[in-house]
Amino acid sequence: MNQNLLDTLQDRMDLEQLAIEYANAIDQRSWDRLDQVFVADAIIDYTATGGIKGSYAEIKEWLPRTLKFFKSYMHLMGNFQFVIEGDTATGQVSCFNPMLAPSLLGGTNTVMFGIWYHDTYIRTPEGWRIKTRRQQHSYSFNVPLWMRLATKLVAPIERFKQARKRK
């Protein structure tokens, strides 16, 4: 095998491991492990599933406050697709993410999400890190009413916050 092919295979394995480390850090609620996943100035957009868009610092602070409402969750990552160009890369990763949420207004507690992550990556001296992450909603099943309403409210609230920042 030539060295270029070996380097490409190593980069791909490293990027897959980065996606898995993200999933494990979230699922184990090990928030500081995310420091090894994202660069400090990363921008993350979870608005497709009712979350927020913000800097890595804002997201890291927001995750434990938000995910405490879910009794359990699991990220199963797959369908890795990467385009590697030197020390940068782009990628798409699928995520099967069943989440057990309380049903505040009656009904079942189960909620399930399928999402795609669209990422940009950068090679740092410590290895590959995520520079930007954007969720794309794939499917939902049995989403409680309170979550459906919250998802519809996030975009207008975010636009309002951005408008206030510009003033």
UniProtKB/TrEMBL annotation:
Annotated ranges, domain SnoaL-like: 8-134
Top-level taxon in the UniProt lineage: Bacteria
Coiled-coil residue windows: none
InterPro entries: NTF2-like_dom_sf (IPR032710), SnoaL-like (IPR037401)
Pfam families, per the entry: SnoaL_4 (PF13577)
Protein name: SnoaL-like domain-containing protein
